[in-house]
Design brief:
about 200 residues; mainly alpha; about 90% helix; elongated
Length: about 200
Amino acid sequence: MEDTDFDSLCAGLSADDAKRLRKIFVEWCDGDENGFPVQMALLARAQWQAAASIPRSLNDSRKWLELHLAEYRRQTAELVKNLSAVGEDQADELKNVVKGHTEALNQASGSFRSQLKSIGAFAQDIRKYLDDGISSYNHVKTDLEAGREMFRKTCKDLDGRINGVQLRRDWLAWLGLIAIGMVIGITMGVVLEAKFR
């Protein structure tokens, strides 16, 4: 008797399982064992067999990766060994390079310190000039306040002397005071300008 697709489907099953499978297919349809239900079951079984092979494939892949990882570790150890040998040869060169950089850094540091000293001295000069300027400003301010008070007093006196001949003399004196004040103001401005230059 010739094997059918159904017999292929039942390969590897126990007699009870094959009997149950046969009943399921009989229930699905009455017909040829080479028909659609058997073909569908064969397809499903092929998919199950492919799914069952995945864990084995993963296990094989894991073993392959472990094998290659061991080889990589061996090669890495060899490279590290070679690198340490090369490193010992180049350690002296590196020491010389570090020494040269240290010397250059010390020279740059000395130059930087001298520049900082120059900047500090310049900053002290600027502070002195600023202090002198503030002092001059305070003197000018005091003089201007005194001049303003004198101007106010003089205005009061002038208001009292409007009548008579005295008015002309007072007027000329007033103009003289203004001229003196202007001369003092201009002189102070020139002195301040000369100090701040």
